[in-house]
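ugh ok so i messed up the first submission bc i forgot one of the chains. this is the corrected input, ALL of the components this time, i swear. 678 residues overall. if the numbers dont match what u have on ur side tell me asap before i send this to the collaborators (the ones from the other lab, u know who)
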Amino acid sequence: MTLTREQKLELYYFMRLTRSLEERLVNLYRQTKVIGGLFRSLGQEADAVGAAYALDKSKGDILSPLIRNLGAMLVRGAEPTEVIKQYMAKGDSPTKGKELNIHFGGIERGFVGQISHLGDMVPVMAGVTLAAKMRGEDRVGLVFVGDGATSTGAFHEGINFAAVQRCPLVVIVENNGYAYSTPVAKQTAARSFVDKAIGYGIPGEQADGNDVLAVYDVTRRAVDRARRGEGVTLIELITYRRKGHAEHDNQSYIPEGEIDRWAAENDPIDRFVKVLRAENVKASELTAIDDRVRTEIDTATDVADASPMPEPVEALRGVYANQANVPPLWFREDVSSAVDSHERASGWGTYDV
Amino acid sequence: MSEVTYLEGIRQALFEEMERDPNVFCLGEDIGAYGGAFKVTEGLQAKFGASRVIDTPISEIAIVGAAAGAAHMGMRPVCEMQFMDFVSNAYDMLTNYVATARYRIGLGCPMVVRGPSGGYVRGGPFHSQNPEAAFFHTPGLKIVSPASAADAKGLMKAAIRDDDCVLFFEHKYLYRRIKEEMPAGDHVVQIGKARTAREGTDVSIITYSATLWKALEAAEIMQAEDGVSVEVIDLRTLLPLDDAAIVGTVRKTNRVLIVHEDTRTGGIAGEITARINETCFEWLDAPVLRVTAADVPLPYSPPLEDYVLPQTSDIVRALRRIVAY
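and heres the new structure output, hopefully the right one now
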């Protein structure tokens, strides 16, 4: 499980890409080019990147990210262009403007776009991995939840069912201190989230979420366990959310000095740079990666910015697999033809009266 | 050909579809060795094994969510809700996740959520509900509610083969009371098409599920006692509604009564009434009327349940009011 020098530099690349991409999105947000909210993973890049890196692309492993796991999606092959287009609600974004931010992706891409309802992806990923197991496929699933999601019924039902069925699933609880404004102490009376594993009869491990190598190691152990047919593992990663729930959140509920302390002493990228430098990686090598990231993001921004907004009528398409006719909103049309076209689309015009 | 029950029709569909397609599997509470609370899945696990007929914890969210995940992977899960009343536990998963997955990110959920709904069986407030209207409002779902044994089988087969999520509302009152000749071969009934259960010329009843049989009784009474010819439309699929069939019968008879067992306020009859108003106003000779359950939780004691649920006499009374215009 020891990573090569190249792999470690790749981890650095993905963490830097995550942070820089989000910084670029902040610029675009301030230029009002981002539609809606903006969510940051500042200070959590190591847990998303390190965990996703433990999955195996060649085996078709699948993960379900959360809003603060942009890094995991990038590791799995999401393109910065796609992310910026999504945030700008462009017509050629992965969801054609129908979905927000990083809610995109499919099974074949190795990551499944989440919904906003916390905990719901645990049962869904239980099903994804159950299917893999039923078919005898050598695939592992990984689902991220935050500390807040552990309070939902969906989390409990999903992890319990997956445990009973011994699904090849890794459940990562990112304990980043806050669910919106609610601190962990108000979220649960449990001493730690990893203790919950006992209640489900599955192994639980806890790790430093700001140490990318530790995250990789703990996740890799769980992935290997799942691949050996030993079922579900619950992992708690201790990290910290240095930004608000979203960009609009002023974090007035945070004790003074807490964010600064984490930023100064426990930044996952700064920590990893020290590790790399101690392993004789040259500063110039890291600078070269930083430059590469900047160029990629510049290009992605230009492409996304030049992309068209969606055609409004796209909003009516794609609800069902075989959606032959969508009755047009007749009150939006020329009155003279409105009723006729409404009836034709509904199949009514075919009736002899 | 032999006569089979409504329940057996569904059971046959499950057997045949599991045999036809290895991706079809069932999951639900007590559906395995026990064969399900109503025995719809009896014998299924013995034939297909515990890995394809999965007994689950009491976890409707997990059942529906896991089915969605498996469906993303190309499986065709069939979830049993032990009683359809319990589907409300999975309401979030169905409306927020399953119904939107294709539209949002192009991930389809070819799956069926089936189970017994409805009253007339003295089941009380939590074993007699008709929760279809709660889902009728959600684009992305399909809703099927068969009234006959042949439809129960044919629509179940269609539901399993459908590329979207189908909520399949079986009626527990009909499970063992309705028996009919089952069409031979691979009997599949197209989702989205209503059926004219009885031809008529003077007034139309639009209905589905158990109240179809009460509508047909009422039609007989109207013919015999009043000389009124009643057409009866069995919707079979509630989402999407068969607009052509609804408009067709209204323009034919010019008078319409909508009957359903679900409660009145916000019920499906209201939507049908509105559509008729938008498209058939000039053809109407009488107001569109509804016979539905009263707006109360379904009570237990027989005199109370009988009073709340639509009865044949209620339908006859409403028809007489319509034809009097």
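quick check: Confidence is low (pLDDT under 50) at residues 348-353 of chain A. that seems consistent at least. The first strand of chain A starts at residue 62 and ends at 64.
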